[in-house]
Amino acid sequence: MGGSVSMKKLCVIGDPISYSMSPVIHNAVIRAMGLKNIYYEKIRVKKEDLGNFIISMRKNGIIGMNITHPHKETVIKYLDQLTDEAKKIGAVNTVFMKDGMLFGANTDVTGFLRSLHENFIDIKDKKVLILGAGGAAKAVVSAVFNDAGSIVILNRTIERAEEISEKTGKRIRAGGLNEIEEEIEETEILINCTPLGMKGVYENLSPVDPEILNSDITVIDTVYNPVKTKLLREAEKRGSRTINGIEMFIHQAAESLRIWTGKDPPINVMRDSLRRCLIEHSSYRFYGNR
Questions:
Q1: Are 32 and 266 in contact (CB under 8 A)?
Q2: Using 50, 70 and 90 to split pLDDT, how confident is the model at 5?
Q3: Could you give all domains of the chain from N- to C-terminal order, each with its CATH number?
Q4: What's the pLDDT tens digit per position in 242-284?
Q5: Mean predicted lDDT score pLDDT of the chain
Q6: Active site residues
Q7: Is the pLDDT assigned to residue 221 strictly greater than 70?
Q8: What is the largest CA-CA distance in the chain?
């Protein structure tokens, strides 16, 4: 009789994590690709437990993981090496094992750039206003840095925004969220990289007073669940073009799977599985982006 085959685990960790759709799209595409004995789950890991969890990864059969809020930066100190891009950005959303070592990578940049492409967004010479200064914001800054005309990053804690500005040789202006009204006047693309609007405790919150939004601004939210955050709903009412976080989420996940498996996942399977799940669990129907 043959011995039992051990399951290989993939996971996403964060806090909160209950509303993550990562297992939905990953397990759907794992089945579609015919990958045997691999499954993907979501695990809540509190800040104080992060170090022990990463250490235990080696023992628990976990071959890779995604990292989400609030661990994208703090996880770095528990890893052996970073890819060049993750090192440059200063944030990790994908962990993989190689030669017994834990590597950190960042696929958010690829995910965001492909989202811009899918939605026909041209940032060339545009004024870009980024809200937030965490791991997602760092990836977005890296994605738009070479093409944007100017970039402003605003954050509740100004020092965090200033750290990002310093890394770019102060080519990015940093400030506090209380400066949104002043900065939005000439903004052409507004990108929310805060968790405000995310399903759960932040769902009824928006980082922007809706009265200052207008039809000249393209509003992008990196949050994907719900499909239309409070920010996007308010922006639509004022005639703004809005882009949700769906495509960024799908493409960063696809890039993570390429890292873990060395294979190209079928994007349409990921997109369709996510669409079905969001329709089932959300009051917003999914019609794509405006």
A1: yes
A2: low
A3: 8-106+249-281 (3.40.50.10860), 109-246 (3.40.50.720)
A4: 999 999 999 999 999 999 999 999 999 999 999 888 877 764 4
A5: 92
A6: 72
A7: yes
A8: 72
SS3 of the chain: the string is CCCCCCCEEEEEEECCCCCCCHHHHHHHHHHHCCCCCEEEEEEECCHHHHHHHHHHHCCCCEEEEEECCCCCCHHHHHCCEECHHHHHHCCCCEEEEECCEEEEECCHHHHHHHHHHHCCCCCCCCEEEEECCCHHHHHHHHHHCCCCCEEEEEECCHHHHHHHHHHCCCCCEEEEHHHHHHHHHHCCEEEECCCCCCCCCCCCCCCCCHHHCCCCCEEEECCCCCCCCHHHHHHHHCCCEEECCHHHHHHHHHHHHHHHHCCCCCHHHHHHHHHHHHHHHCCCCCCCCC
Question: Tell me, what's the pLDDT at 61?
Answer: 82
Q: Provide the whole-model pTM.
A: 0.91
